[in-house]
Write a structure and sequence with these properties.
Helix content is about 40%, strand content about 20%. The chain is built from ten helices and 14 strands. It has a six-stranded parallel β-sheet with strand order 3-2-1-4-5-6. A three-stranded antiparallel β-sheet has the order 7-10-11, covered by helices on one side. Strands 12-13-14 form a three-stranded antiparallel β-sheet. The structure holds nicotinamide-adenine-dinucleotide (NAD) and (2S)-2-hydroxybutanedioic acid. Nicotinamide-adenine-dinucleotide binds next to helix 1. Keywords: NAD, Oxidoreductase, Tricarboxylic acid cycle.
């Protein structure tokens, strides 16, 4: 029998939502930290959805997961983030009919500012945060700015779903297995401006660019990956949930346990100025983890096409940052 380590506390916000439902059972069954690490779950919901979250907590109990040490449901942010080692910020305000972009940013600022402050006040000293709720990069920026005393590097946003989508599309096109694809990068924002980049990708031991047409890359691969979220909404009638939960688990697992070998993945992390991305923005990069800290993969060659695409997505992030700053939603630290 393997020896058990101490339980890790995971806070999931928006726990009664569809991503929450696809996420919690996988965390509790050991799919995020492995089969020798017990977990305590703290589920945060708004008051109207607390009862539904309690129903999910009952089902978690009914699974009798050996690794599940405890589940707590609350609508109080301070209780929710108490001792959290990992915070998965899924709950967000969706765009409603007639809502302008500024209204959406404002509504989400009202959620992610207080959550950032509550993380700083209550979470464990090693807390790591991934924002899933959209607009994910800018919500992460807002939360980080309110988390006084917490290193900005601990706040990230999810672009692993985009990364996984890109891997799957390239594998399909080249009739290869997903396991043989590496070196894909998602740059920029988790939005339609993102740049899925396969210029450094390999399939088996061959450069991807030798295996696919340039026209396929520009006219099919890039738009298909960048607009996949909207396509899922159209076809499924609801936004991606199981694949988003799966990507969030991949993100946290690789961050905490480390990326395997010398393979990189994609995550939106705070920029240190690499690749011309303004310092402090939370933008997607190629990253590795040593088991605790993301590191941006250095010194990749960026061709003119990639430069233009990265700059376009980063410009959107700058515009979002400036908009939330103007709305008073960012605390300068
Ligand atoms: P959902 O509407 O099913 O669930 C969201 C839940 O969040 C609801 O139960 C709601 O009550 C809760 N919530 C709202 N405000 C909250 C708050 N202040 N505190 C705690 N909980 C709160 O939505 P979903 O399908 O689970 O998606 C959640 C978010 O994830 C959306 O913003 C969606 O756009 C985003 N998303 C991101 C990615 C990504 O790759 N980054 C992928 C898919 C979806
Ligand atoms: C996705 O990429 O599937 C989502 O971010 C789409 C959305 O707007 O919720």
């Amino acid at each position: 029998m393997s020896s058990m380590t101490r339980p890790l506390t995971v806070t999931v916000t928006g726990a009664a939502g569809q991503i929450g439902y696809a996420l919690l059972f996988r965390i509790a069954s050991g799919q995020m930290f492995g089969h020798d690490t017990p977990v305590r779950l703290r589920l945060l919901e708004i008051p109207q959805a607390v009862r539904a979250a309690e129903g999910t907590a009952m089902e978690l109990e009914d699974c009798a997961f050996p690794l599940l040490a405890d589940v707590e449901v609350t609508d109080d942010v301070d209780v929710a983030f108490e001792d959290a080692n990992v915070a998965m910020l899924v709950g967000a305000r969706p765009r409603g009919a007639g809502m302008e972009r500024a209204d959406l940013l404002q509504a989400n600022g009202g959620i992610f500012g207080p959550q950032g402050a509550a993380i700083a006040a209550n979470a464990a000293s090693d807390a790591r945060v991934v924002v899933v709720g959209n607009p994910a990069n800018t919500n992460a920026l807002i939360a980080a700015s309110h988390a006084e005393g917490v290193p900005a590097e601990r706040f990230t946003a999810l672009t692993r779903l985009d990364h996984n989508r890109a891997v799957a599309q390239l594998a399909n096109e080249t009739d290869a297995t997903v396991g043989s694809v590496s070196g894909i990068t998602i740059w920029g924002n988790h939005s339609a401006t993102q740049y899925p980049d396969l210029s450094h990708a390999t399939v088996g031991d061959r450069p991807a660019r030798e295996l696919v047409e340039e026209s396929w890359v520009r006219d099919e691969f890039i738009p298909r990956v960048a607009k996949r979220g909207a396509e899922i909404i159209e076809v499924r009638g609801a936004s991606s949930a199981a694949s988003a939960a799966n990507a969030a688990i991949d993100h946290v697992r690789d961050w905490v346990l480390g990326t395997p070998g010398d393979a990189w993945t994609s995550a939106a992390v705070v920029s240190d100025g690499s690749y011309g991305v303004p310092e402090g923005l939370i933008s997607s990069f190629p990253v590795t983890s040593n088991g605790g800290d993301w590191k941006i993969v250095p010194d990749l060659d960026i061709d003119a096409f990639s430069r233009e695409r990265i700059d376009a997505s980063v410009a959107e992030l700058v515009a979002e940052r400036d908009a939330v700053r103007e709305l008073g939603l960012l605390r300068e630290r």
